[in-house]
Design brief:
The chain has helices at about 10-20, 45-60, 95-110, 175-180, 185-200, and strands at about 5, 25-30, 65-75, 115-125, 135-145, 160-165, 170. The chain is an alpha/beta fold and about 200 residues long. It has one domain: Maf protein (Alpha-Beta Complex). The radius of gyration is 17 Å and the shape is globular. The chain starts with a strand and ends with a helix.
Amino acid sequence: MNKLVIASGNAGKLREIQAMLGPLGCEVLTQTALGVADAEEPHFTFIENALAKARHVAQVAGLPALADDSGVCVVALGGEPGVHSARYAGDSAGREERDARNNAKLVAALAACSDRRAYYYCAMVLVRHAADPQPLIGEGYWWGEIREEARGRNGFGYDPHFFLPELGKTAAELDAEQKNRISHRGQALRQLVDKLRSFP
């Protein structure tokens, strides 16, 4: 595989994925650079949404495509925001403002809850062409808890409120290398790369 398109316009995701794709030794392109519009994400599961995005970009770009769908799932909220994580508080603002509104809504939803357990989940899908009958899939889970206080300036999305008890830090307090080593997205991508290496 000489070229691969990442099916995302999210700058934070792109930074993380591109940093972890070095071992593949292929040219990594982005859908934004190729002028490919975002795909619809109408599904109820992360895997279905990731597959829809990968197939869409592969179809338009005519190249292998990698997509992820991920979000934070809160136990006390029955798994919400889940697949709605990126637009939990609406879709009318720029990314930074939307992140702030999403976090504010999540913190408010948990105001009376003692159970703050949550996990990030990532489904990552690679298709070699749009009609690939055997897409490669990687999954990752990253457990933590939602804290009311925001801490840290790294990361994006819910990272400032996603606290890791074993480290005593939020995801936003980790440097990029450490986060990629243990995060849901890092786990999913390593699974997928391992499968790709063993696939003809």
